[in-house]
Amino acid sequence: MVTVKHNAETHEFETLDQAMEWAKNLGEFVTIQFNGNEVVGKFGVDSITDGKFSDGEDYLWKKRRR
Known about the structure:
Strand order of the largest sheet: 2-1-3-4
Number of strands: 4
Structural class: alpha+beta
Distance between the termini: 49 Å
Helix content: 10-25%
Strand content: 25-35%
């Protein structure tokens, strides 16, 4: 059993994949507990649109080649 804690709520899932998918869709900070391990964070991927992160910050990284 995999447990996901979000704010004061606790949700249980059969698999880690199910828990991760739920956390990605939620898009907020969660704690995932499974097999004696604990993973925390905001899961999912933000995209770069028009040179900016989803929070409005400029995306400035460029790969440098030698």
